[in-house]
Every structure is written in structure tokens, then in C-alpha cells.
Write a structure and sequence with these properties.
alpha+beta, Nuclear Transport Factor 2, Chain: A, Archaeosine Trna-guanine Transglycosylase, Chain: A, domain 4, 2 domains, six-stranded antiparallel sheet, six-stranded mixed sheet, 27% helix, Ribosomal_synth_fac_NIP7, Nip7_N_euk, RNA binding, nucleus, NIP7_N
């Protein structure tokens, strides 16, 4: 596992700040110790520095992964977040969308959130802002991008898309062989 280059670290933090804003530093400097991001085969892992120091005794050829996979870099050098990062992004999310129970199943199948399925939305959510999608019981279901701002959602047609789907917890079943 190697450290991320400066360019890749910048891309990673830009993507994370789209969802959690300035709370990115809370991911690194946590009360239970320091955490860092490491890269192996285009995938980015989030790992405790304590665990990382213990893993140095393992040969790189024998190590498959270490920590939590946050996402991967594409061939065009863009960073894509994986659903495995949801557990760490949800508590720090600045903007959230809650979906009605009737919309939960549709979202988990990979569909966008429609205005008719919108339960609540965080005040002052800007258009194209990264959001965490939650059920009405505050269970994180996935994340996406707001297709409309909060003000636009209030006056939108019921069949208008208010949140573009990016990832959901249904991917654990649909894409289990590609998630690592």
C-alpha cells in the first residue's frame, strides 16, 4: 500500500468535501486515533495508522486489502466513491435527503429520487450538491447529487427528479464481486 500522490489526494478530498464539507478533517483526526488514506491497485483505503504500522510486516504481494475501501480512481483519473464509504460519510454529511417508505425500494434498485418520493430535504441545499439519502427512520441508504435546490423542490412537479442516484446499499447484493 502506498501513499496517495498530491494530485490524487486533492481529487479524493474534493470528492469527500462535496458530501461532508469541512468535516473531512474529522475523518483523519478522530478521537480513537489518527487515520489515513492509502492506495493499492487504483483503490483507496481508509485505515488507522495503528493498523497500518502493524500491516508493514506483511508482504505487499500477500496483502489483498487493508481497512475500508472508500472508492477507486478511473482510467481518466477521476475518483468514484464506493458504497462502502457510506458508514463514514453519513454522520458528517452536511446535506441530506430523506425518502418516503414507498421510494426506498426504488432507490435501492438504482433509480433516481422523484419529488413524489421525497420526505424531507435539508434547508438551503444547493443544486448539484452531494447528499446522503436516508430513510424516514434515519437509516443511510446511499448517496447522490441534488438535481434541484431546496427552493426548487418546493415548486417542482411530482414526477421531477430531485436527486440523482450515485450509490446505494443495494450494491452490496448487485455488485458483490467488484466491491472490495
Amino acid at each position: 500500500m502506498r501513499k496517495l500522490s498530491e494530485e490524487r489526494t486533492k481529487l479524493l478530498f474534493e470528492k469527500l468535501s462535496l458530501y461532508i464539507g469541512g468535516n473531512v478533517k474529522m475523518l483523519i483526526d478522530r478521537p480513537d486515533g489518527l487515520y489515513c488514506f492509502r492506495e493499492k491497485k487504483e483503490r483507496v483505503y481508509y485505515v488507522s495508522e495503528k493498523i497500518l504500522s502493524l500491516a508493514e510486516s506483511v508482504s505487499p504481494d500477500n496483502m489483498i486489502s487493508l481497512g475500508i475501501c472508500f472508492g477507486k480512481f478511473t482510467k481518466s483519473n477521476k475518483f468514484l466513491l464506493h458504497i462502502t464509504a457510506l458508514t463514514y460519510l453519513a454522520p458528517y454529511a452536511q446535506f441530506k435527503i430523506w425518502v418516503k417508505p414507498s421510494m426506498e425500494q426504488q432507490f435501492l434498485y438504482g433509480h433516481h429520487v422523484l419529488k413524489s418520493g421525497l420526505g424531507r430535504i435539508t434547508e438551503n441545499t444547493p443544486k448539484y450538491q452531494g447528499v446522503v439519502v436516508l430513510s424516514m427512520a434515519d437509516v443511510p441508504l446511499g448517496f447522490g447529487k441534488a438535481a434541484k435546490s431546496t427552493a426548487e423542490c418546493k415548486h417542482a412537479d411530482p414526477l421531477t427528479i430531485v436527486c440523482f442516484h450515485e450509490a446505494d446499499i443495494g450494491e452490496y447484493v448487485r455488485s458483490e464481486e467488484t466491491l472490495l
